[in-house]
Amino acid sequence: MPHREATLDNILEERLLELVWEGHRRQDLIRFGRYHKAYDQRMALTNEGNGYTTVFPIPQKSIELNPNLKQNKGYADKEL
Predict the structure, then answer these.
(1) Out of 23, 34, 41, 69, which could bridge 29 as a Cys pair, Cβ 3.0 to 4.6 Å?
(2) Domain range for residue 24?
(3) What is the DSSP letter of 52?
(4) 8 and 38: one domain?
């Protein structure tokens, strides 16, 4: 294997190839602020720059059970 400089791009590419079936890709890209950008064959989504795709929506049932909870940004109907 040829020598490669240890840059973030090279490390992320190596992790993609080495851990392809391990489910780490999304977390790696979120951790390094690259998930909201287009990559590989994934196109960037509308308003994704605000980071709403880095968290999951809170289930409506949980919000109904606990009125102190507020839906994560980007998932409330009025914010889409």
Answers:
(1) 34
(2) 1-44
(3) G
(4) yes
Domain tally for the chain?
2
Query: Higher model confidence: residue 69 or residue 17?
Result: 69
- Exposure string of 33-72, with b = 16+ CB inside 10 Å and e = fewer, is eebbeeeeeeeeeeebeeebbbeeeeeeeeeeeeeeeebe
pLDDT of 79 reads: 44
C-alpha–C-alpha distance, residues 36 and 7, integer Å: 20
Q: Quick check: 80 pLDDT over 50?
A: no
Could you tell me if 39 and 61 lie in one domain?
no
Same domain, residue pair 17 and 56: no
Q: In the chain, what percentage of residues exceed pLDDT 70?
A: 79
**CA 19 to each of CA 1, 33, 52, 58: distance values in angstroms, whole numbers, following the listed order:** 17, 19, 25, 29
